[in-house]
Structure to design on (437 residues):
């Protein structure tokens, strides 16, 4: 019998509260949940036969639901789906070896939830808008081809130059949106990770960690940003357990 | 129409959730039972589900999807 | 998982869930080499790298052209070379049945190559 691991929790002196909570919950495939403790941390596990762990959507969702419920009561680090260890002793030894990293990460996520923000554009529309702006900004393209010049080459260079300027404008635009968002999030003391230009449609893909009580502020900010940037679609998701803010590798 | 909005937000919620639980969080090295191939299988299920929703949307008139009310 | 996690969504456009599927799942763009596709797989890998370098060179060149410090002769020579490179690349893509999308390897946390 192996142990399926759900999350690493900061329990402090509240192990009784955790036990009460676990008694009310069920793990994957209806299994009972238990805690394996080391100092002020606990790992939540359920018994599992390796061969029985189904790699399907519903099991992953059940697994995530356990993490979700726990995250409403304790600061925790979610564990990736499918992590199994062979014994309590192995878990305790893992906790012992990684204690400083685990502590640091747990303090980082205490009383916080993760939120996701994605900003999409309709690439053709945004490009058309910026193209108009770009043409107005740079009237002077290269001089047209003359008899002495190869016109095909000059046409090609001019076409590429247009694309290049458009691309630069697009990036500048996205950067200004990112600056705007980051400033708003800074006011909420958020820790954020933002990627830009992930696909032609998704110009911003970000996650951030924010105090649990600030959820409504956040919705407000998203609304304000939407009003400011009509052409962009915003989607804000959360609250999530801090999946994207686990910054250490288990030794 | 309105059902589509609910379906779509449910899809997005599930996709976001799976992305996190399958790709993020603490990795207990050497003890991951689910292989990369299995993870792809989990996603495959989601893809099928998504394409069925897309088809349903196409069948209904109009392409516009109502915005979801902020809040909750 | 019945709870809706969407706090704010401004008029979702068509194909939103598809786009999110793309973002959360890099399966499509994974480079898969198997005995059966070794030929086209290798061509894909090589052309991806060539295309990356070609685009970087082109970008850098346009930056310099835009800077206005090049003479007409320099612009023309540069343009001709880059144009021919682009044409050659198109021929190669056609030959190996590859699209622009194929030539973009997803590097996971490092993001897309292009």
């Amino acid at each position: 019998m192996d142990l399926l691991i759900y999350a690493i929790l900061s329990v402090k002196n509240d192990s009784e509260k955790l036990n009460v909570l676990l008694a009310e919950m069920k793990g994957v495939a209806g299994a009972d949940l238990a805690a394996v403790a080391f100092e002020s941390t606990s790992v939540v596990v359920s018994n599992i036969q390796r061969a029985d762990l189904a790699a399907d959507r519903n099991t992953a969702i059940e697994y995530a639901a356990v993490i979700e419920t726990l995250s409403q009561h304790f600061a925790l680090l979610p564990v990736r789906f499918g992590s199994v260890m062979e014994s309590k002793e192995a878990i305790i030894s893992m906790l012992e070896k990684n204690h400083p990293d685990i502590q640091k990460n747990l303090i980082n996520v205490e009383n916080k939830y993760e939120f996701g923000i994605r900003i999409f554009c309709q690439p053709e529309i945004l490009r058309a808008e910026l193209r108009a702006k770009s043409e107005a900004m740079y009237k002077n393209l290269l001089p047209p081809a003359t008899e002495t010049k190869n016109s095909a080459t000059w046409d090609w260079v001019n076409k590429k130059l247009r694309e290049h300027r458009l691309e630069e404008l697009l990036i500048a635009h996205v950067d200004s949106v990112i600056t705007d968002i980051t400033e708003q999030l800074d006011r909420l003391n958020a820790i954020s990770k933002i990627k830009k230009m992930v696909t032609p449609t998704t110009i911003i893909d970000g996650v951030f960690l924010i105090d649990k009580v600030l959820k409504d502020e956040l919705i407000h900010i998203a609304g304000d940003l939407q009003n400011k940037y009509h052409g962009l679609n915003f989607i804000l998701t959360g609250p999530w357990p801090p999946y994207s803010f686990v910054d250490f590798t288990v030794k | 129409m309105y059902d589509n909005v609910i379906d779509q937000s449910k899809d997005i919620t599930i996709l976001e959730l799976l992305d996190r639980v399958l790709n993020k969080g603490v990795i207990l090295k050497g003890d991951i039972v689910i292989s990369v191939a299995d993870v792809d299988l989990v996603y495959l299920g989601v893809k099928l589900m998504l394409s069925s929703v897309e088809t349903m949307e196409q069948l209904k008139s109009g392409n516009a999807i109502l915005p979801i009310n902020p809040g909750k | 998982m019945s709870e809706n996690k969407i706090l704010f969504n401004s008029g979702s456009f068509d194909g939103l869930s598809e786009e999110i599927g793309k973002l959360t799942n890099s399966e499509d763009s994974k480079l898969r080499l198997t005995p059966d596709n070794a030929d086209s797989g290798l061509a894909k890998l090589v052309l991806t790298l060539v295309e990356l370098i070609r685009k970087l060179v082109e970008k850098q060149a346009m930056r310099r052209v835009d800077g206005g410090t090049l003479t007409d002769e320099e612009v023309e020579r540069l343009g001709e070379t880059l144009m021919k490179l682009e044409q050659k690349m198109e021929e190669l893509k056609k030959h190996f049945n590859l699209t622009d999308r194929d030539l973009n390897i997803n590097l996971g946390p490092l993001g897309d190559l292009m």
Notes: Chain A has seven helices and nine strands.
